[in-house]
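User: Show me a protein chain along with its predicted structure.
Assistant: Here is one chain, sequence first, then structure tokens.
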Amino acid sequence: MTATHSRRRAPDDVKTALFQATIEGASRCGLAELSIKEIAALAGFTKGGLYHHYASKEELIDAVFDQCLVDFGDAIQERIKQDKQAYGRFTRAYVQAAVDACVTRNTAQSLFIFNALTDKKYAYKWDAWVSAKLSKYPDEQHAPALRIARSAADGLWLQCFGMRQPEEKRAATADLCSRLVALTMPD
């Protein structure tokens, strides 16, 4: 056995490699077509090595989806911390994080999330996650303008699904984001 095969990887490195491979593989072919063999190859593992860490493809996808929720939640939380206006704070952060995910960042994670949301299980999980976040901001849950802004942000995110925004569309999307943010301000 060579030194590279006998050396154990740090647990965080293993998790990162498997998650990135799952996101990359799903962005190429979708979750339904994604195989354990492909994930293992992309991550530099054998199938057995992958199964050592996750018992099934579903367990791995669950873990990746949960991490995507954490990452998106962190992006929202960072924006909330910087926002001095209390009313609409969560919705502004949600809109900005969603638009940022499709305009300025690699869309692989967004693609993964949308692939997952085609499955009822993940759609319910997403809805429960958003509802739990919104429960901390009760004045935002049912306010029509704020619901419109969040729904429109979801639409922008969906519009970017699987595509990188060309430069000419980024300005238009940024303008739409500004208009959505304006909807979230108190009258």
